[in-house]
Write a structure and sequence with these properties.
Layout (H helix, E strand, L loop, with lengths): L2 H15 L10 H8 L9 E4 L6 E16 L9 E16 L3 E13 L11 H7 L6 E14 L7 E8 L23 H14 L16 E9 L3 E10 L15 E10 L8 E12 L7 E2 L7 E2 L7 E16 L2 E16 L2 E16 L7 E9 L9 E2 L23 E13 L2 E12 L6 E4 L11 E4 L6 E15 L2 E12 L1 H6 L5 E12 L1
Parallel strand pairs: 15-17
Antiparallel strand pairs: 1-2, 2-3, 2-24, 3-4, 4-5, 5-6, 6-7, 7-8, 8-9, 9-10, 10-13, 11-12, 13-14, 14-15, 15-16, 16-18, 18-19, 19-22, 20-21, 22-23, 23-24
Length: about 525
């Protein structure tokens, strides 16, 4: 699907929706941004505009981080280092009787980056490798420039476009829209469902890479239809450069995305349960600027001047629910996807599955929330045949599902247990233990969060498995403190006990440590 096709689809979407001049409910756009981490409307400085022009809000956000890495090691490299990062966002929103609009400018910077590590040794190395050869990077870019037509005719249709965020599986906010009772999104079950969508469904395949300094946006348009029992969302977009690349904000016109999500709202078919069906089409026809090793287990090259010719369709569904039970709330999630298409000269067929459940004791001190889960993405069992069987994660926000960023959902099996505690309204404590294996030892160990630049394959890395499957065990610890209404402090630590796959790649040190602290101030 070429960029011209994307433009045609966007135009058709807009033409279909324009006669209705329709939109989602008044808070939908704001809530969708909340799920992706943007500041909330109440923190805006709001002024009233003359006449029917509406109101305009202004906001800002500053995020400062200090990273400390002791990465897997191999001689003669020193993979122990620290570095800093800063992100600043300034935005404005406009709302009146028929239109909502949102623009935001963003500045990112990293400094004290390492210059003598092995390839891919943590965030500092990745920023350095995608920079200009200095030990600091910086970039200024347009993060958002979007509009949304509001519903006026009662038809339930809406349309919007521009530069925006896109979160697979999370474009509809639970408990909102037609048929939602007043305050429905504040009920325990609906809040849990939306937490599952924001943290365990959203961005699995397509997302804004929010943890990185340069992130990712999407240029294009969408149309949606909202009903008391269902919600339909269609988008056609191109992603932007970003992630670890300081040259953020440039549109990747040769990567085309088409998304379709049909959501059956919670309570329609099953009590306290949302069901969604989706289809995502991903097409990458970028011309390579240099000859580079493919990110698969075929051992072949993509030559300079040729296209990275990939087109993959992903069909799937999720079921996310929550029920009050005795002195708490039980949550559950089933997510699955089947892929088919073309991977360069190979036929692509792959799959992924997630099964998760939890229980929170809401009536006891610290409100302990225990969750368990199993996530698997298929691997390829033969690098020399005519088929490619590695599940392709497209353009995700990997860190939602791999907090140490030492793996992703491609050719992995991840069994985890997590515990979340809330000693007070200001504190959230979390610990997780993951056991990660490769789904197929004949395939590779994949890392990364999707393509971040034009002309090369910097978005994913593929390391040899050495024929092994044991990747390792990961322990996560984090604490978040709400210092004041506008200021949040987070401390995070992860230790990765490397297994045979890691040892096959890093002879000197097979364990990995990541510590970071961040301060986020909204104004």
């Amino acid at each position: 699907m070429g960029s011209r096709s994307v433009g045609v689809i966007v135009a058709l979407c807009l033409l279909l929706a324009l006669p209705a001049l329709a939109g989602q409910d008044a808070e939908r756009m704001i809530q969708a941004k909340n799920a992706s981490g943007s500041p909330t409307l109440p923190k805006d400085v709001v002024i009233a505009l003359p006449g029917s022009a509406g109101k305009m809000g202004f906001y800002g956000m500053s995020r400062t981080r200090w990273y400390l890495w002791d990465h897997f090691g191999s001689a003669p490299f020193d993979n122990a280092y620290d570095h800093f990062a800063q992100q600043l966002r300034l935005g404005t929103r406009l709302e009146n009787a028929w239109l909502k609009a949102h623009t935001a400018w963003q500045y990112g910077q990293t400094w004290l980056l390492p210059t003598g590590t092995s390839a891919g040794a943590g965030t500092g190395t990745l920023y350095f490798a995608n920079g200009t050869g200095d030990n600091e990077t910086h970039g200024t870019y347009l993060k958002y420039a979007e509009f949304q037509l509001k519903e006026l005719t009662g038809a339930g249709l809406t349309a919007g476009g521009g530069r925006m965020n896109l979160s697979s599986g999370n474009n509809y906010t639970a408990g909102t829209g037609r048929g939602a009772a007043e305050g429905a999104n504040a009920s325990p079950s609906i809040k849990k469902i939306q937490w599952l969508k924001s943290n365990r469904v959203g961005d699995r395949l397509i997302g804004g890479f929010g943890w990185s300094e340069y992130q990712r946006s999407f240029d294009g348009g969408y149309a949606a239809w909202d009903h008391e029992n269902a919600h339909l969302h269609l988008s056609a977009t191109n992603p932007t450069q970003g992630g670890y690349d300081e040259n953020a904000g440039r549109t990747l016109y040769d990567i085309d995305l088409l998304t379709l999500e049909a959501t059956v709202k919670a309570g329609t078919l099953l009590p306290g349960t949302e069901i969604q069906f989706f289809y995502y089409d991903y097409a990458d026809s970028r011309q390579m600027s240099a000859t580079i090793l493919r990110r698969d287990n075929a051992g072949r090259l993509v030559h300079a001047g040729t296209a990275h010719d990939i087109e993959i369709g992903s069909w799937g569904a999720h079921l996310a629910g929550a029920q009050t039970w005795r002195i708490g709330v039980v949550d559950y999630l089933v997510w699955g996807a089947y892929q088919e298409g073309d991977w360069l000269e190979l036929d692509h067929e792959a799959w992924s599955l997630a099964l998760e459940a939890g229980h929170q004791w809401t009536a006891v001190p610290w409100k302990p929330w225990l969750r368990v889960g199993y996530n698997v993405g298929s691997g390829d069992d033969d690098g020399f045949d005519a088929e490619h069987g590695t599940f392709y994660q497209m353009l995700p926000t990997t860190r939602l599902y791999s907090s140490s960023i030492m793996y992703n959902l491609m050719n992995t099996e991840d069994v985890f247990v997590s515990l979340i505690l809330k000693p007070s309204e200001a504190w959230i404590l979390k610990t997780e233990v993951h056991r990660i294996d490769l789904q197929d030892g004949a395939d590779r160990w994949y890392l990364g969060a999707g393509e971040i630049t034009d002309g090369n394959l910097a978005g994913y890395a593929a390391r040899s498995s050495g024929g092994s499957q044991e990747l390792g065990t990961q322990l996560d610890l984090s604490a978040t403190y709400q210092l004041r209404a506008s200021t949040t402090v987070t401390v995070y630590y992860a230790h990765f006990f490397g297994g045979d796959v890691v040892k096959n790649n890093f002879m000197a040190e097979s364990d990995n440590d990541l510590f970071y602290t961040e301060i986020v101030v909204q104004f």
